[in-house]
């Protein structure tokens, strides 16, 4: 019987192959479903395709009847699409069998066969249909048919809708004609015929890229503002010696310059892409953009060609792009950026924001489906775009654009003002950084200093363990950039998702709670001692602030402190200039230390709360797990009470306490922290302006009183209440 069913399936497939001619996609689909219906002796046969995560659209049937769409998980078709296996169903007159169409074990559609009630099916017959469906899935994925299916889905998909929802990256409003950003090209030649010529091509392309960046910055009206620092930093990455050494090594091994650029980037991606650290992922995007851009120059393409067509107002739609790509367009024409892959701290987002361009991300499929020239309205407060908007929407957007312009003028006025609340409470506002090109943010934001310098980043980007001299050079550059402002160095924080390429990786079942951070450096004490010596030498007459991460108990901190003092005494004996003052602190990331905090504070000069890890350990919640998104909130009563306990103990002991985790970078969260009593916040550079505006618009005492009234709440989150409070009291939390 099994062999019979296999033969049946093969005969169906053979007949399809023999009868397919030169018809277009629609006619081929009709012929295929007709053959399947005839061979299975069915009353009808139908193919449904997944239009989105919840809808299965009727693509083609053996009869002339067009069947309604089915919802995934509902009915015989929907269940087959959801459960990924064949589903049988009987009605009064009919017997239905629905078999999923799968590619790479993921359902892409459903084949529905309908027979008279008396027919029936058994499991072996179902297996034969599954074999037919394997062929059918590949048939649908063929170039001609897949294009037809995409057009079909488009006619029922997202682009046909008036309004699409995404995620706000940069607030604002825009109205203009769509320009689809397409720049990246595939590598066409891999192996070089002339190594010296390829090396010369690389150098020529690099010089041309830098010259063009200079030209962009020298445009009228473009030589001031945060975007200048971003593009300067971008150029620093592009000229990184280690990056070019990798490229030239690949050219010397026999690759073309284009292939060498791609290979160098791929190696860096393989090394760092596994990290869940948002900062690292964003820097990889920068490197991706630079690699793509360099390859364009190598290909001989005119990178200065006019972008944006003849439109006076444009909305750029992109899959991804870098800050320099954005500057390829006439910035005076850009009214919005709709980009599939983007976060608020990515450089393209920061440049867009500096240019007052609203940015929306996360509208999947739009880049592939939208066409140039379509009129689009962007609402950067609601996080939506409107395709071919009606007159009423156009007028509404124009009004909001005027209001936003007045708002931006107000924020610019704050740059040189202190971050002080309306009732006179000074809130020290620092920034978190990790790479050399981040140093420019110290000046551009006019912040109070660096609240967290991630020393692991230089370690991770190096080919081998940096020696003391290399570390000293790096730390001195930060001191110079800070120009007398406070700098806090975090000792090496590796392990878990942050791995050093020159260390053998260790398999752990739960790396987030495994051998990482201070646990590694205390076990490999020589590494920690060398870093402490580098800190001391780099400080040389300046104040030195060092904090140790992932401390779980007092003994660990005392061991780390002892290690520092050992290094300090050695540097003193060897005659090096010492820091003018030394402050040693620790991060509060592990809940256990909160219950030992009173004793710990006797030995600490300062503490800083790393809310990212503290949050996940407190709720036993993997913050990288998408299934847990939104389940827990830092603005819940339990977590806020934990934070209140920390700042209360620190204030009682007279020990400075800051927050350097992600919580401080969100205005509504930072407002709550101020209400709890925190007066030192370290934020991402992209969030600095928003948080500062929030600080200057609130009364610290008012927020404190309100929080005290709701901290006993049993609700899952206090976020709605806090947002309402902010709205009622004109606190700026945009």
Features:
Beta-Lactamase; 46% helix; alpha/beta; 734 residues; single chain
Q: What is the CATH topology classification name of the largest domain?
A: TIM Barrel
Strand content: 15-25%
**Second rung of CATH, namely the architecture of the largest domain:** Alpha-Beta Barrel
Contiguous helical run count: 28
**Mean of residue pLDDT?**
82
Helix content: 40-55%
Oligomer: single chain
C-alpha termini separation: 68 Å
What low-confidence regions span 5 or more consecutive residues with pLDDT below 50? 157-161
Strand line-up in the sheet with most strands: 7-14-13-9-10-11-12-8
Radius of gyration: 30 Å
Largest sheet: 8 strands, mixed
Describe what this molecule looks like in 3D.
By secondary structure, this protein is α/β, with parallel strands linked by helices. The protein has 4 domains: 155 residues, GAF domain (Beta-Lactamase, 2-Layer Sandwich), CATH 3.30.450; 127 residues, 3-Layer(bba) Sandwich (Glucose Oxidase, domain 1), CATH 3.50.30; 105 residues, Orthogonal Bundle (Enzyme I, Chain A, domain 2), CATH 1.10.274.10; 301 residues, Phosphoenolpyruvate-binding domains (TIM Barrel, Alpha-Beta Barrel). The protein contains 28 helices and 22 strands. The strands form 3 sheets. The chain has an 8-stranded mixed beta sheet. An 8-stranded parallel beta sheet has the order 21-20-19-18-17-16-15-22. A hairpin with a 3-residue loop joins strand 4 and strand 5. It starts with a helix and ends in a 6-residue tail after the last helix.
